[in-house]
Amino acid sequence: MAISLVKGQKISLEKESGGGLSKVVMGLGWDPAQKKKGFFSFLFSQKTEIDLDASCVLFDENKKFVDVVFFGNLKTKDGTVVHTGDNLTGEGEGDDEQIIVWLDKVAPSVKDIIFAITSYQGQTFNAIDNAFCRIVDARNNKELARYTLTGGGAYTAMIMAKIYRHQGEWKMSAIGEPAQGKTILDLAPNILRLL
Length: 195
What we know:
Layout: E1 3-5, E2 10-12, H1 13-17, E3 23-32, E4 34-35, E5 46-47, E6 52-60, E7 65-69, E8 81-83, E9 97-102, E10 110-119, E11 128-137, E12 142-148, E13 157-166, E14 169-179, H2 188-194
């Protein structure tokens, strides 16, 4: 059973997977908030399409930028981190966007991989419900950890989580830090503070 993380909580991915963890999928999801208007709102509801974008950025042990993955760059130069594609609406069940990480092939110099969701069209998190990130062991599709956001806010980005190396093993930390930005590149100052 997956661990349900709270903001700031850290876990060992190796221990949760039972060892031998080599490939993980970071699934990010959200739903458009249900809007209700007027006297007959109980009869009709409107959903607005929300185009959020999952992304991640890799850093070395010196907090130096290594590579980035987002809708405009779907994989790292070495191919060890791959974005599966852009969901423009947030509709549907499960993960809206996924980023696959081959942990056993990521360059040894990479220490931190930060995951974020940004709103390219500038819609705030007040317009979404059920935002989450989860990490899945790709060997067996077992969910290892999930971090669910509660409540919205007048921000356009959320730094969700990071996976990082610590004493030779991969760990995950739930971050849940609101920010402003249309792409992961806009979040650089916020991310650097969290390394």
